[in-house]
Write a structure and sequence with these properties.
Layout (H helix, E strand, L loop, with lengths): L1 H11 L1 E11 L2 E10 L4 E5 L5 E8 L2 E6 L7 E5 L12 H4 L1 H19 L6 E5 L9 H14 L16 E5 L4 H4 L1 H15 L15 H35 L16 H12 L6 H7 L16
Antiparallel strand pairs: 1-2, 1-6, 3-4, 4-5, 7-8
Helix pairs in contact: 3-6
């Protein structure tokens, strides 16, 4: 479910969760949570501009979710959008030009392979006395090119010309186009829009072992954990009326291997702080207090 919510946020800028439960005296018992597709959801603002209801359309039917209950049935998570009051803007939309460039470079490379891995050109007919090819000769020539010289399987096949035909390349070479570097530059821009360090993409020349490790830590610290915290805080605020104010949903950073070095540094620094009590040290390390922990620990 969390993977779906995060994917919806990154690809659409919006994510929706539906709470399903049993109505009981004094409120509702939430039993299930469902991630709903953002392209099927419509927000209905109220008179004051705040969301009053949501409509979800699927399979030809529409379900309305009114948000005036003690626990609103829909949780709407968004990214910041400077041009819309209700719907978020996705990183994919911010990187739209880079995505189009990357796709165009891939299509250009594919078309190059489909056309015998050679740039396009022109067949020039140097007939005597200004003669031109007859319709039959023209169609035969087109058919021979399509059957014997186009496609990846025909790459490198020598071109046999007769009857005064001459081949003149007209397009720039791949080196001149430099499409590969353009594709790599577009990939870097897309990665930056999603908060992914370009060193993690595996582009030749970008990564070494040392900066790969550092980029991996930066990726977790500046992209993954803030997104997880954003989702966890929204879920906590949404579900706390049902499960109590002590509810807290957060990522367990101790189980992230990429951050082991950071955690070890933090534990060493906290353990050597004589001015902190045991519970203050536990709080700084992300743990809860223990009974009898409001004392200073004597260092050996």
């Amino acid at each position: 479910m969390l993977e779906t919510v995060a994917s919806h946020l990154l690809l659409a800028g919006n994510a929706y969760l539906e709470a399903v439960g049993l109505g009981v005296e004094g409120g509702m018992q939430v039993r299930e949570l469902y991630a709903l597709r953002p392209d099927r959801m419509k927000l209905l603002p109220g008179p004051n501009g705040w969301p009053q209801a949501y409509e979800y359309s699927a399979a030809g039917s529409t379900v309305r979710f009114d948000q005036n209950a003690a626990l609103p049935p829909i949780l709407h998570l968004t990214f910041f959008n400077p041009l819309d009051d209700h719907y978020g803007q996705s990183p994919l939309e911010a990187a739209a030009i880079a995505v189009d460039t990357h796709n165009a470079a891939a299509c250009w490379n594919k078309a190059l392979l489909d056309n015998a891995a050679r740039p396009s050109g022109a067949l020039v007919y140097a007939g005597t006395d200004g003669g031109v090819l007859s319709p039959v000769q023209y169609e035969r020539l087109k058919k021979e090119f399509a059957d014997f010289y186009q496609g990846a399987s025909n790459a490198g096949r020598p071109l046999v010309l007769d009857g005064g035909l001459d081949w003149r390349p007209m397009s720039l070479s791949p080196r001149d186009m430099d499409f590969l570097e353009a594709k790599h530059a577009a990939a870097r821009e897309i990665a930056l829009a999603f908060g992914v360090p370009p060193m993690l993409l595996g582009i030749p020349g970008d990564n070494t072992y040392s900066n790969y490790q550092e980029a991996n830590r930066v990726f977790w610290r500046q992209s993954v954990l803030p997104l997880a915290g954003r989702i966890g805080c929204a879920l906590t605020h949404w579900l706390s009326p049902v499960f109590g104010e002590n509810l807290m949903l957060a990522a367990d950073t101790d189980r992230i291997e990429a951050l082991n070095a950071d955690r070890a540094t933090l534990w060493e620094r906290v353990s050597k702080a004589p001015f902190l009590t045991v519970n203050e040290k536990r709080l700084a390390a992300g743990y809860g207090p223990i009974e009898g922990g409001d004392v200073f620990q004597q260092s050996n």
